Structure formats: structure tokens, C-alpha cells
Amino acid sequence: MLKELTFGARVAEEEAGELASYFVETEQWKQVWQDEVDIVYGPKGSGKSAIYATLTARESQLFDRSVLISPAESPQGSPAFATLEANTIIDEDQFVGLWKVYFLAVIAETFADYDLRSPAAKMVVRTLTDAGMVPGRHVSLRQKLANAAAYVRRMFSEIEPSVSVAGVVDVGTRIRFTEPDDLQRSKGAMHVDDLLATAGQALDDEGLRLWLLLDRLDVAFAGKPQLEHQALRALFKVYLDLGDIDRIRLKIFLRSDIWKAITASGFREASHITRELTLRWDRAALLQLVSQRLVRNQTLREFYDVSQDGVASVAGQEDLFQRVYPEQVENGSKRRRTFDWCLSRTSDGTKRTAPRELIHLLIEARGVQLRRQEVGEDEPVGSALFDGNSLKGALPAVSETRLIKTLYAEHPDLKRFMSALEGQKTNHSVQSLATIWECRQDEAKTAALRLVDIGFFEKRAQLQFWVPFLYRPALDLVQGSAEGVGSPGDVAPEDEDSSDGQT
Questions:
Q1: Tell me, what DSSP letter sits at residue 305?
Q2: Percent of the chain at pLDDT exceeding 90
Q3: How far is CA 319 from CA 296, 300, 324, 330, in A?
Q4: How far from chain centre, in Å, is Cα 385?
């Protein structure tokens, strides 16, 4: 049964086909599904891509509600915007124009795919085709973006619309980013916002709505912070510009730390963005998530004589988890129960656990348990599939993946501060950090607070900085306080159930 047990993949993009079978329909999901929310923020691994993947998997159900969906960024593989170079678009105004004509190109192909034939739909398709942005059916998003970028560069290099001797605006440059005068309009020129409004009219004529989905924007602009800043600020301006066209919705899934970064220097438009939510997972939602993944295994259902309906209640979920796993990882009357131990070991400095790390822990524990039994170690007590040592043994892999593939990869400028703590204590002051980092105390404080922002440190009273359990194995940290922090050997309350000595 242990060999057959599966929890699915940690990353939603890797299991889009299977996700629907155990996707947890939280209240946050329902807000997106009911079109009450457009912008979904959350830390990496919080479930943004799972919502995105479930929307695409339920395309037919959305169609039954007269909603069409079109991905405006590649859900897998190389993102379309990853091909955009920093010198392609030079300012935010140009990025606004790029997003608008790019979305129009996606919309035009959607109209063609669904064979929308109203005069408004035909005008949109014809205008985009004439502009060279819909050169054929099923052109990749990457090519659409390249065509849109070339068009924007050409148009922003011109002062006036291209007009032939006969006084007719060149069909390839009819989409304008400044308001055409009456003569230019009479010759065929059209403001980009008017063309978007025409697309909205085409959908209204058919009684349809269109959702343009945008995910993986962190990957799209990886390693290009200035480009990311310009592009995403422009994207949210476009989102607000489209607010009057209720037939077209942008559905944007974005890491919360990226949103914080692009608004740090001020962003007046942010106050007008109201159809938003930040994904948060409490204990009950995470327990439900794990239970759903457990009961999708037929062999496990039969062995424990439990049905999928049997885990509909919190009591049923608690019961199943306590039958599959030991009551406690570390024995003692004051020790945490196993599920809470798992949450404490996978939460970051914000005291929140993302589903990705929790699922990763359980996947790794399965592998550790199998290897231990294959070499002849004792099986778990009673009917449990796991014992505490397997969960402990799973921590290093989870810690290393989170530290290297998330924090180091996404914050390379902070890597040197984190890696310098290898082998050090878990609790630090500004003074101890300045010594380790060989810098002034004001510089150490600034760096430490940035590490708080990304969840590597938990900030405590009197400017003490505590490293969560999640990152300790990867850095081989030693439990306790650095010299000069409180009393030697101080132990934080949360460390009390860490009898394994680490960490």
C-alpha cells in the first residue's frame, strides 16, 4: 500500500490532468469561480497555479455559463514574455500599448476559434490581421508577443499616422495609441481603446464573456527586475483601463512579494484595484487538502475502510490522518500532534505554511519510509503507514529545495546573507549578524529586515531574528541564540519540541 500511495505532484503545472480529482474548493476558489475576483496574490506554492489549472480544466463548464477562457501566458514550458528583452520596450507607456495590442491579438484568435461573425467581431479580427498580429491560425503566444512588440516600436517611433498620397491610413498602422483626429478617423485610424471596446461589443452581441488568464509572471521576467517592474505596473494600468468593458476580464495570478515590490515606490492606481484576494491557508484548509489527496488512493480507502465522503468533516479528516501517521513525531505529553508538527516544520518566517512544502514533506516521508522498510527496519506501530523518524528524515530534502530553488533562485541578491549563516545558531541580533556578515550594524539591520520580508527570518522582540525550522537542515543550523542575544542557549518557545537537536 505504501508503494502505491501517491500525493500527486508538488507543482500544479506538473499535474494539470489529475488536479481536478482532489482540488480543494475553498471559499477563495469560489470567489474566483463566481467572477468576484480578478487578481489573486499569494506566496510561491500557495495554490495560484492550482486555481489557474482548474479553471482551464473546467473550460467546458465555464462555456456552459457563457464564459470563454484564453491563456495569455504559457501555462507550461517557456513563458512568452521570457523572450522580451529589456531594450525592446523602453518605458511604461509603451508597455501599456504592448499589453493592449497583445491582448487584442489573443482576443482576435479566440473570436476566430469560436467562429464569432458579428460585424464587431469581424472588425476586430480584420484590424488585427491587417496590423500583422494575427498572421494565421494557432500562432504561438510567443509569436503574438513578438508581433505586438514590433508594432508598438514602429508606432511609438512615428509622430503621425502613416498616410498615403491618397489620404488613406496604412492598414498596417490603423491601431493608434494617441487619439486620432476626425480626418484620421475618417481614413480608418482607430484608438486601441476603441478597438478593445469593439471587442467587448462583439462579446456582448453573442451574450459571452471572455477571461484572459495570466500566470507564471514571476518566471516570465526572472532575472530582469527593471523589466518586470515596468511590465507589471503597466499591466495593472491596463487592467484598470479595461474596467469599463465588463465582457472582458483579466484574471491575474501573481506572487504577493512581487506585488509588494512593484508598489513599494508608490503606485496610485493600487487603491482602485478592489477585485482581489490574497491566498491564505489555515490549518483546517491544509488538513482538508491532505485528506483529499489521501483518499484518492483506492488501496488506502479499502484498507482503512473510508470513503471520500468520510473525510467531508473535520473530525473525519483528523481521524484519517491519525490512523495513517503516528500520533506524535516526538513522544511527550507536551509535544505537538503530528499534523501540527508538520505545519511547524514547513512554515516560514511569516508563520504560514504553503501547500507545496507540506505536500513535499509527505512525499519525501513516503520515500524515506519505503527505504527504511526495504533494508529491514521495523514497520510502524499498529495500522499506521509512517513513523516519526520518516517524517524527520524527510525534512532535509524539503529544506534544501525551499532554500535553493525558491529563496536563492528568486532573491540572488540576498543569497550571500543566507548562505553565510551555515553552521551558525538559529537566533540572532543585529550585532551577531553584523559580525557574521562582516558589515556595519545598520547594513546588517537593513539586510535582516529584507530577509524578514521574504520569510527567511521571523522578527521578534528587541530586533532578534529567528530562523524557522524550514530552513535549518539545509544550512545545518544549531539550535540556540548567538553570543550576545539574550542569555546563552536561549531557546524560543517554538523550539521546545525539537528534541532531535537540530534543528
A1: T
A2: 57
A3: 16, 14, 9, 19
A4: 32
Spatial contact of 286 and 343, defined as CB atoms under 8 Å apart: yes
Nearest to 235 by CA among 200, 269, 201: 269
Residue 183's CB is within 10 A of a number of other CB atoms, namely: 12
d(CA 105, CA 126): 11
HEC readout, 44-85: CCCCHHHHHHHHHHCHHHHHHCCEEEEECCCCCCCCHHHHCC
Q: Nearest CA to 348 among 281, 301, 249?
A: 281
Least Cα distance to 392 among 490, 326, 300, 458 occurs for 326
Alpha helix stretches (DSSP H) within 256-410: 256-263, 283-295, 298-304, 314-324, 338-346, 355-374, 388-401, 409-410
Q: Tell me: the pLDDT tens digits for 341-353?
A: 999 999 999 999 9
CATH assignment of 412-497? 1.10.10.10
Nearest CA to 231 out of 347, 95, 335 is that of 95
For 472-500, the pLDDT digits (tens) are 999 999 999 987 675 444 444 444 444 44
Query: What is the residue extent of each domain of the chain?
Result: 12-278, 283-410, 412-497
